[in-house]
Design brief:
Layout: H1 3-11, E1 23-29, E2 33-35, E3 39-47, E4 57-65, E5 71-78, E6 90-95, E7 102-109, H2 126-129, E8 134-143, E9 147-149, E10 152-160, E11 168-171, E12 176-179, H3 189-214
């Protein structure tokens, strides 16, 4: 059995070993300006991996937090760069029921990192299918309330193709501005001014009529 499974179960994941460089993981919304009733998506993206060379990504366990009064979570699609879920090359899970306003995303690859370290294994290998940057998952949301909010990401665990922890930096998404669909009320001074002008005009007409009659 792959060493990555044992590593994930034992590590739990807040201790990370030093690597030559840290990879970057972040979340990017499809837009930053929305209205109540809109829908939008957000990509969880990993970058600064090896470009079809080590290090590759073999497992991730992430939390994405959102404001429940502003957004409603509707679903997620996992990417295919840790293996084809339909072919059993990887396993994944999503949970938004444990903590309100928090989505847990987990995916574990069953693919080996490379052919050199596993001579009796068969491809595909993680090093062969992973570029330096790719989308781990795409989340979908409904917009249910106005305000300014953001999606924030935290990492529970992040491991390479051998199950060893990866050093990383996190980039949160840009703030999202949600405007209300209610019409902007007309300033009260505008109708009052119009009413005053109308009264002024009526007064002038009355004065002219009086002068003509009494001439």
């Amino acid at each position: 059995m792959k060493t990555i499974i044992t590593t994930v179960l034992l590590a739990g994941a807040l201790a990370f070993s030093a690597t030559a460089h840290a990879i970057t993981i972040g979340i990017t919304p499809s837009t930053t300006t929305l209205a109540v009733g809109d829908t939008f998506s957000a990509d969880v993206i990993v970058s600064d991996l090896g470009n079809f060379v080590p290090p590759s990504l073999g497992v991730f366990d992430l939390n994405i937090a959102f404001t429940q009064t502003t957004f409603g979570f509707t679903g997620v699609n996992f990417g295919s760069f840790l293996g084809d879920l339909g072919l059993g090359e990887a396993t994944s899970s999503v949970d938004d029921s444990t903590t309100p306003g928090v989505i847990n995303l987990f995916e574990l690859s069953f693919l080996e990192a490379d052919g050199a370290t596993c001579l009796l294994c068969i491809p595909p290998y993680l090093d062969d299918i992973q570029p330096a940057s790719f989308v781990l998952a795409t989340l979908a949301f409904d917009v249910i309330g106005a305000g300014v909010s953001a999606l924030t990401l935290s990492v529970n665990s992040l491991g390479d193709g051998f199950g060893d922890p990866l050093d990383f930096v996190v980039e949160d998404g840009s703030p999202i501005i949600v405007r209300s669909n209610n019409p902007i009320p007309e300033p009260a001074t505008v109708p009052l001014l119009a009413f005053g002008i109308a009264l002024l005009g009526l007064g002038r007409v009355q004065k002219t009529v009086y002068l003509l009659l009494c001439g």
